[in-house]
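Researcher: Next sequence.
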Amino acid sequence: MATATNPAPQINIGIDEGTRAEIAAGVSRVLADSYSLYLKTHNFHWNVTGPMFNSLHMMFEEQYTELATAVDEIAERIRALGERAPGSYSEYQKLTAIPEETGSPEATEMIRQLVSDHETVARTAREVFALADEADDEPTADLLTQRMQLHEKTAWMLRSMLA
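Model: Next structure:
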C-alpha cells in the first residue's frame, strides 16, 4: 500500500503520463457509452413486447451479457493506464453519447435505437483508437478493435431485422 513514506511505484509502460491520461479519458468515453448501452439493452430485454418478443428478449439478453463483460475489461484497461475508471451514473451521463430511453418504445423502435447506439460506440472507439495507435498502445488499440468489430456486427444484425 502506498503511504507518504512509501509511495506507489511510477508507471513505466513506455507511454508518457500525459498520453496515458489522454488515452484513458477517451477509453472512459467508450466505457460510458458501453455501460449506457448495457443499461438500455437490459431495459429493452425486460420491456419488449409484440410478435418478436421471444427472439428479441433472447437477443437482447445475449447483447447485455456481452456488454457486462466488456465494461469490466474496458474499466480494467483504464486502470492499467494509471487512471481512475468512472463508475457512477452521473459520470457516465457526462461522458456518454448514448441517449437515455426512459419509456417503453415498440419493438422496432427499440431495434432502431440499438442500431444507432451500437454505431455510436463504434465511432467513439474509432476516435480513441487513433490516439492509442499514435502512442503505440497496442493493448488499448486491440481492445478498441475488438469493440468496434463487435458493435459494427451487432448493428448490422439488428439493422437486418428492419429490412
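Model: Residues 122 and 150 are 8 Å apart (CA to CA). Residues 17-162 form a domain with the Ferritin fold (CATH 1.20.1260.10).
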